[in-house]
Amino acid sequence: MTTLIDVAIRPVGNGFGAEVVGLDLARPLDDATRRAVYAGFVRHHVLAFRDQRLTPDQQIAFTEQFGTLERHIARNRGAGNPLVHVVSNLGADGRPSGKVGSTRWHTDKSFRPEPSLATILHAVTMPPDGGDTCFADMAAAYAALSDADKAALDGVRVVHSWELSRQKIGERATPEEIRDAPPMSHPLVRIHPDSGAKSLFMGEHASHIDGRPIEEGRARLAALEAHATQERFLYRHRWRAGDLLMWDNRCLLHRADTNFDAARHARVLHRTCLRGTAPA
Fold first, then answer.
1. Residues 154 and 65 reside in one and the same domain
2. Which residues are catalytic?
3. Residue 5: pLDDT band by 50, 70, 90 thresholds?
4. Is the pTM value of this prediction over 0.85?
5. Which of 33, 72, 105, 232: CA 20 to 30 A from 2?
6. Residue 69 gets which letter from DSSP?
């Protein structure tokens, strides 16, 4: 059992983000430690647990201490378990392919009725430098809007769709994927169920504004994304060997950076997600 003894949560980011030292996540957390970790997660939005070596089953066990595991899309590539998704630049031959996924700003599973509460991403094999993950604070971005802009967004809803997000990048969702993840409408401004803060809820899977012409809505979402991803709202996580990240999808966008030679170096991570609640 891992306890609060010698555990520290230290801010590291640009207004958000913190590292956690002193925990062995391969061991279950006691109740006080679990509550402290979750409180730090809500406060800092991104937690980096250093020096972890978890098997997929151990990662699942850690994740389940904070809620219900979320399944992945129908074509998920698992790590021997359908609840663990392998994030990788490797090709079918097991070699670096030169391609990096998830490079557009997004929040995980926003096309679900109950989008992800948290994503847990564990570094298995990382390049010697680069391959960062970047985060945008959507609560801070919303707070920085003018009162007039905030009023204009009140009550606006957005259609999130796996199928349409694939179309944006020139790919096609399979019929199975479309059945698995039909379009879903969510508020553009959501209230965080733990902190009560308002934040923008959008990203790659946000197709268009509900009830408005598609191109008009997409232009408005693009303008909001440009505002929300200014440097002043960002935290860049530079991975270390053994890092495990836990971040809050309810108030963040994230993306992978291509700042490494993806045709030469492997970048492999294991991902689990926690099911959230319907945005309100």
1. no
2. 106, 108, 254, 271
3. low
4. yes
5. 72
6. B
